[in-house]
TrEMBL record:
Keywords: Membrane, Transmembrane, Transmembrane helix. It is found in: Membrane. The keyword Membrane applies. Pfam families: Tetraspanin (PF00335). GO terms for cellular component: membrane. It comes from the Eukaryota. It is a multi-pass membrane protein. InterPro entries: Tetraspanin/Peripherin (IPR018499). The chain crosses the membrane at residues 12-33, 45-66, 73-92, 167-187. This is Tetraspanin-13. It comes from Triplophysa tibetana.
C-alpha cells in the first residue's frame, strides 16, 4: 500500500519501539554491570539509571503492544507519555548544549556535595582529592593522597565536562526527535483503518 499505508505505519512504529526496548535493556544492563564490578558504588546513580531504563521499557512495551494490536487506548496514552518525555528531554538536552562555564561549575559542585559515595568514586577513578581545594587532614580515596601530590577534582572534571555535556546533549537531542517522530507516527496510525478488519467496525 506504499509507505503512507497502514502496514508501513505499523511496521515503523513497531521498529521504533523495538529500538526503545533495546536502549532500555542496555541502560539497565550497563548500570547493573557497573554496580556489580564496583565501577559505580553510588546507589542513587545506579538506581536512577535503572529507573529510567525500566520506565522506558514499559513505555516502549505499551507502544509495541498498541501498534501490533492497533489498540486505540494504549496508543493514545503512549502518544501522550511520549510527547511529555519529548518536552522534558528536549529541554534538558538544550540546557546541556547552552550551559555556560559558571553554571557548569555550580552544577558540578552541587552534585559533588550531594553524595559522599560519588565523591569517593571520582577521587578513586580520577586520582584527585577534594573538589576545589584539598583538605589536608581529611580522607581521600585516591592513590595520590598517600604521596601528597594530588590535584583537585574540579580541575580534572572541568577538562572533560564541556565535552561530556555536549555529547549528552547531542544524544538526547537526537532521541528527542525520534520521540516526536513516534508521536506523529502514533497519531497517524490511530486514524488509519485496518484493511483486514470489518469495514463497518469503529476503529
Amino acid at each position: 500500500m506504499g509507505c503512507a499505508g497502514f502496514t508501513c505505519s505499523k511496521n515503523s512504529l513497531c521498529a521504533l519501539n523495538i529500538l526503545y526496548v533495546m536502549v532500555s535493556l542496555l541502560m539497565i544492563g550497563i548500570a547493573a554491570w557497573g554496580k556489580c564490578f564496583g565501577l559505580v558504588s553510588s546507589f542513587q546513580v545506579v538506581g536512577g539509571i535503572i529507573g529510567v531504563g525500566v520506565f522506558l521499557f514499559f513505555v516502549a512495551l505499551a507502544g509495541l503492544i498498541g501498534a501490533m494490536k492497533h489498540h486505540q487506548v494504549l496508543l493514545f496514552f503512549y502518544m501522550i507519555i511520549l510527547f511529555l518525555v519529548f518536552v522534558v528531554q528536549f529541554s534538558v538536552s538544550s540546557a546541556c548544549l547552552t550551559i555556560n562555564e559558571d553554571q557548569q561549575n555550580n552544577l558540578l559542585e552541587v552534585g559533588w556535595n550531594n553524595s559522599l559515595t560519588t565523591q569517593r568514586d571520582l577521587e578513586k577513578s580520577l586520582n584527585c582529592c577534594g573538589f576545589s581545594h584539598m583538605v589536608v587532614n581529611g580522607s581521600c580515596a585516591a592513590p595520590c593522597f598517600h604521596y601528597s601530590n594530588c590535584t583537585t577534582c574540579a580541575a580534572k572534571i572541568q577538562e572533560h565536562a564541556g565535552e561530556v555535556l555536549r555529547f549528552v546533549g547531542g544524544i538526547g537531542l537526537f532521541f528527542s526527535f525520534t520521540e516526536i517522530l513516534g508521536v506523529w507516527l502514533t497519531y497517524r496510525y490511530r486514524n488509519q483503518k485496518d484493511p483486514r478488519a470489518n469495514p463497518s467496525a469503529f476503529l
